[in-house]
Design goal:
Largest sheet of chain A: none
Number of domains of chain A: 2
Structural class of chain A: mainly alpha
CATH architecture of chain B: Orthogonal Bundle
Order of helices and strands of chain A: HHHH
Helix content of chain B: over 70%
Structural class of chain B: mainly alpha
Number of strands of chain A: 0
Oligomer: heterodimer
CATH class of chain B: Mainly Alpha
Number of helices of chain B: 3
Number of domains of chain B: 1
Shape of chain A: elongated
CATH topology of chain B: Helix Hairpins
Strand content of chain A: under 5%
Distance between the termini of chain B: 59 Å
Chain lengths: ~130, ~100
Amino acid sequence: MSLDIVATYAVAAFLFIGAVFALIGVIGLLKFNDPMTRLHAPTKVGTVGIGALLLASILYFDTFHDGSIHELLIMAFLFVTAPISANFIAKVIIHQGTCETPPEPVTECTWSTLGSPNRKSDVVEAVNHTPE
Amino acid sequence: MSAATELMNFALITAFIVVAISQMLSMVRLFIGPTTGDRILALDTMVVNAIGLIVLLGMWQGTRMYFEPALLVAMLGFVSTVAYARFVLRGDIIE
């Protein structure tokens, strides 16, 4: 079995993995109940799916055409920006108070993001008070 | 055409169908909401899946031409997500 055949099988495997991960992420986006839990599914799983698709593209062009690794640029950009946009969406959800309130902390302290879990004005204040 | 190439073509078609289905399912979440955060998240997911569709199209046609569009869509998707979230958070995008 030559190296080309192994690479072709690897392209097929990465394509399957990427497609399944993308679908699982979107199913999580549809099925979960709370906005914060819905935030988890596509931002992690979907990013892994697209990473697998880009790996398949790299392997494909390396095998059948003149190879180059330009897709690594897209992958690096996506992997850097996906947590940032997820953080921004989480800020929006906290700002609007649409998520379930987190449970009381065990000790005599508060959650770092929410000043007090029960008062929405503190939540808005905590979100708006970002250091410039 | 060997068995490996046939399997790869089958995987390519399957990936097209599955990513298109997930694109439509995230469109459902975009419609039903119910909160603004969900809609921003659905749009972000659709952008990421669109990058996957562009990459798959480039593999299908066997050309490297679709690399730059995928990179542009990735950048524009991130910027638009941040702008949308910023608008909801601060009521303004560029202060």
